[in-house]
Amino acid sequence: METEHLEKRFGITAIKKGYVSADQFIDALKIQVMEDISTGKHRLVGRILLEQGLMSFEQIEDVLESIGKGIPLLKESKTA
Predict the structure, then answer these.
(1) Which of 9, 48, 55, 60 has the fewest beta carbons closer than 10 A?
(2) Domain contains 69
(3) Which positions ≥6 away from 38 have C-beta within 8 Å?
(4) Which structural domain range is residue 48 located in?
C-alpha cells in the first residue's frame, strides 16, 4: 500500500533528521496498529507524533517535503 510505504519513509526521515527516536516512532506505530484493530480507523503516524507532542507541525511539514509529499498525508483514512 502506498500509505504504508509513505509512513515508513516518513519514520525513517523523521529519525534521520533527529525529530524522534526510533523507540518513539515504534511506539507510535504500536498505537496506530492497536487503533486499526480496535476501531478500524487508520490514524497516520505523523498525526500520532504531533498529538503526543513529540513532533511539531513544522517538523512534520519538513519531513513531508523531504519525501515529496504535502500536508494532506496527515488526513486519517479508513482501513480496507
Answers:
(1) 9
(2) yes
(3) none
(4) 2-75
Q: What angle do CA 41, 47, 48 make, to 5 degrees?
A: 80
Q: Residue 70 and residue 53: Cα distance in Å, rounded?
A: 20
Indicate whether this model's pTM tops 0.85.
no
Three cell numbers, residue 12? 525513517
Domain count, the chain: 1
Query: Which long-range contacts link 14-20 to residues 24+ away (Cβ below 8 Å)?
Result: 14/49, 14/55, 14/59, 14/63, 17/59, 17/62, 17/63, 17/66, 19/54, 19/55, 19/59, 19/62, 19/63, 20/49, 20/54, 20/55
Model confidence over 24-75: pLDDT tens digits? Answer: 999 999 999 999 999 998 889 999 999 999 999 999 999 999 988 765 545 5
